[in-house]
Write a structure and sequence with these properties.
The protein is of the alpha/beta class. The protein is built from four helices and nine strands; from the N terminus they run βαβαβββαββββα. The strands form two sheets. The protein has a six-stranded mixed beta sheet with strand order 4-3-2-5-6-7, sandwiched between helices. Strand 3 and strand 4 form a beta hairpin. The longest helix has 18 residues. Bound molecules: xanthosine-5'-monophosphate and magnesium ion. Xanthosine-5'-monophosphate binds next to strand 5, helix 3 and strand 8. Pathway: Purine metabolism; IMP biosynthesis via salvage pathway; IMP from hypoxanthine: step 1/1; Purine metabolism; GMP biosynthesis via salvage pathway; GMP from guanine: step 1/1.
Length: 183
């Protein structure tokens, strides 16, 4: 779906598909260099990270394994609470593996902090984080994120995997919704 297909629903486009892809290619280049000579397992967080994972992985000129976790964080409305539940666990044993968590967006970082301590307890050889987008609150996070993509304002956004009530995930750009969509 292009922005032009749902023009009336959007109040601001933050990043176009081309801008997102350019940033992900840059991150993929860094990741490729950092993991040279090592097997890499990328762990995507469902469902938002599907697009990020697809574009990152395809930017590599090397092999990479992919696995997925589905977690839900409960919170009021559009803010997460840090209370997390695993809905689908990994199929892969990550003991002694080089693991890179792939996220769509980090807001408070509560979801990710929980995920990091959960995966750390499985004793991977290494564990790093990659996110396509960050919001300003992420700066206060306890967990360092090695590969950070594009910055967003403290607004609820949709597109490129991010949803509002399971819609807009297939929008190519990342945008803020117009107020009428919520009413
Ligand atoms: P925290 O606050 O735990 O939140 O870092 C991370 C998770 O919350 C979701 N999230 C969003 N989803 N538009 C969305 O569609 C947004 O603007 C947004 N901000 C946070 C997202 O699932 C992420 O994994
Ligand atoms: Mg999500």
């Amino acid at each position: 779906m292009d922005a032009s297909d749902i023009e009336k629903d959007l109040s601001k486009i933050h990043y176009t598909e081309d801008q997102i892809l350019a940033k992900l290619r840059e991150l993929a280049g860094r990741i490729e260099r950092d993991y040279e000579g090592k097997d890499l397992l990328m762990v995507g967080v469902l469902r938002g990270a599907v697009m990020v994972m697809a574009d990152l992985a395809r930017s590599f000129g090397r092999h990479v394994e992919m696995d997925w976790m589905a977690i839900s964080s409960y919170g009021s409305g559009t803010k997460s609470s840090g209370v997390v539940r695993i809905q689908k666990d990994l199929d892969t044993d990550i003991t002694n593996r080089h693991v890179l968590i792939v996220e769509d967006i980090i807001d408070t970082g509560l979801t990710l902090s929980w995920l990091v301590s959960n995966l750390e307890s499985r004793k991977p050889a290494s564990l790093e984080l990659c996110t396509a987008f960050v919001k300003p609150d992420a700066a206060k996070m306890a967990v360092p994120v090695k590969y950070v993509g594009l910055e967003l304002p403290d607004e609820f956004v949709v597109g490129y995997g991010l949803d509002y009530a399971e819609k807009y995930r297939n929008l190519r750009c990342v945008a803020t919704l117009a107020p009428h969509v919520y009413s």
